[in-house]
């Protein structure tokens, strides 16, 4: 170990200090980096059982059911049919564009489709979905007369939130059903 004094700072050189083995490329890679190994058929089956897929149709059905519940609750709580219809229209403004976008994206997500084109299709259909939702919101006064905007926006917001909350609940229901089947056998 050598020590050099520069001004008031001591610089200590420790030649015995080990340095991590790094490849000449990236700083976060090492020579001992793991090599990618594809899953075996059994590992893939286990992964799919652990993380089941949820169909788009099921998500849309849950969105529509949520919209119906919100509309009925709005009608029951307010005692006014217009409030219920406004909530239902808000839910429709969430479900209809989502269904159209899901139908449009299905073609772009086919196996073998170029990934760049699939991404472009996804962005395109998301823009169509947003434009259709905004258009439906702008048309609400012509269709409903004088809508209840709080009810309409509540119906829209709760229906859109089904994407996250609904998918999470469906995953829980599927994994809970599988646990019951395996524990009950």
What can you see in these coordinates?
With 185 residues, the protein is mainly alpha-helical. 69% of the residues lie in helices and 5% in strands. The protein is built from 5 helices and 2 strands. It has helices at 41-50, 56-78, 81-108, 115-144, 149-184; strands at residues 2-6, 9-13. It has a two-stranded antiparallel sheet with strand order 1-2. β1 and β2 form a beta hairpin. α2 (56-78) packs across α5.
Fold topology:
Blueprint: E1 2-6, E2 9-13, H1 41-50, H2 56-78, H3 81-108, H4 115-144, H5 149-184
Antiparallel strand pairs: 1-2
Helix pairs in contact: 2-3, 2-5, 3-4, 3-5
Number of strands: 2
Give Rg in angstroms.
Answer: 28 Å
Topology as a string of helices (H) and strands (E): EEHHHHH
Multimeric organization: single chain
Shape by Cα distribution: elongated
Parts with pLDDT < 50 across at least 5 consecutive residues: none
Count the DSSP helices: 5
The major sheet is characterized as: 2 strands, antiparallel
Task: Kindly name the structural category.
Answer: mainly alpha
Can you give the mean pLDDT? 79
Q: Span from first to last CA? A: 68 Å
What is the topology, as strand order, of the major beta sheet?
Answer: 1-2
Q: Percent of residues in beta strands?
A: 5-15%
Question: What is the helix fraction of residues, given as a range?
Answer: 55-70%
């Amino acid at each position: 170990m050598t020590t050099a004094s520069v001004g008031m700072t001591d610089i200590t050189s420790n030649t015995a200090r080990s340095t991590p083995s790094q490849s000449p490329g990236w700083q976060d890679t090492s020579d001992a980096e793991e090599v990618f190994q594809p899953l075996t058929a059994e590992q893939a089956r286990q992964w799919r059982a652990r993380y089941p897929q949820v169909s788009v149709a099921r998500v849309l059905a849950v969105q529509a059911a949520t919209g119906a519940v919100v509309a009925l609750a709005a009608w029951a709580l307010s005692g006014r049919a217009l409030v219920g219809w406004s909530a239902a229209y808000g839910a429709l403004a969430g479900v209809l564009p989502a269904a159209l976008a899901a139908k449009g994206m299905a073609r772009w997500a086919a196996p073998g489709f170029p990934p760049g084109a699939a991404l472009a299709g996804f962005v395109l259909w998301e823009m169509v979905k947003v434009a259709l939702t905004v258009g439906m919101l702008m048309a609400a006064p012509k269709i409903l007369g004088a809508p209840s905007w709080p009810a309409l926006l509540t119906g829209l917001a709760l229906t859109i939130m089904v994407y996250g909350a609904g998918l999470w609940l469906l995953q829980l229901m599927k994994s809970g059903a599988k646990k019951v089947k395996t524990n009950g056998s």
